[in-house]
Amino acid sequence: MFSFILTTLFLLTLAPVFPQAIFLDQAVNVRSHTNIDAPYSLGPELTAKSALTVNLENGEVCFSKNSIKIFPIASITKLMSSLIFLENRTQEWSKRILIKEEDLIINSELDSDLEPAGLNVKAGQSLELEDIFMAGLIRSANDAMKILARLINLSSDKDFVGLMNEKAQLLGMSDTIFIEPTGLDVGNQSTAEDLVKLILETMKHNEIRKALKIRIYDFPVFNANGQKNYQRVWNTDKLLGSFVNLTGAKTGYLEESGYCFAGLSNYKDKQLVVILLNAATDQDRFQEAKSLIWWSAENCQNILK
Fold first, then answer.
1. What's this model's pTM, rounded to 2 decimal places?
2. Which of 66, 237, 298, 305 holds its CA 20 to 30 A away from the CA of 129?
């Protein structure tokens, strides 16, 4: 018993310099992701079933838990939908888009009692295209993503979801599949490793970076008679403005997916990608994201220098 305690204290003392991870509930060897031969170190205890942090300076993994296991990704799907829209859009941002019945989310169509996030709009009203795009990411509005997908004119042998899957393959996201553009379908699935590639690609676009950094967004909704009223949406990312200095993040939730998070952090001037899939609660998702960012920046010094 005494020797076990000494061994544990020894590992805890050396933990800050090792790029491996031991979870309190599961030991994980991530040597396959690094060129460093080192003992395990102690990492945060997570409710998330999958997690990954990556240093962008050299592409090395700081922390990994079930990072190649496939899970539903819920509204993280919207990152790919936004990317495909930007790559194919032809309309001006100021163009007013008429809302159609087919754009609206009907609860009876869903497999759960979850109230889906959406714009507070009705068929016959209209919004400017830029506002639809921004609210779709900020509010994680499902109807906004349906509208964006509808607006892309494609040839008869292609559809919007087909483009999403083609892009995933081009990015090397070999364990990812998309079923529809909102994330409401549990069939939208990926891995933490694949989602690193997705968030890095999407964050190359100024429009996406801008949306993910906005906390509160106001925009006009135009009625058929020409009158307008304003709607306000709040960002689903509760870590905006926190000490971990997120440069952009997207959340997601379904009963089947648990609470998901994919983001970029510049904590202490260290560029980190953090992915969490299937956390137990909303609070756990954000606390665990903060813990992973802090732990990776503070304890992987030999990687992050």
1. 0.84
2. 237
Q: Are strands 61-65 and 21-22 parallel, antiparallel or unpaired?
A: unpaired
Q: Mind giving me the DSSP string for 139-198? A: T--HHHHHHHHHH----TT--HHHHHHHHHHHTT-TT-B-SSSSS-STT-EE-HHHHHHH
> Whole domain around residue 23: which residue ranges?
2-71+239-304
**First-residue to last-residue Cα distance in the chain:** 37
Q: Tokens 């997690």 identify what position?
A: 51
Residues 178 and 287 in one domain: no
pLDDT tens string 26-78:
333 333 444 434 434 567 999 999 999 999 988 889 999 999 999 999 999 99
Residue 185 Cα to chain centre, angstroms? 16
Residue type, 129: L
Task: Report the phi/psi class of residue 241: left, alpha or beta, with left for phi > 0 and alpha for psi in -120 to 50.
Answer: left
- The tally of CA atoms less than 13 A away on the side-chain side of residue 175 is 15
Question: In terms of C-beta density within 10 A (0-12 exposed, 13-18 middle, 19 or more buried), how is residue 120 classed?
Answer: middle
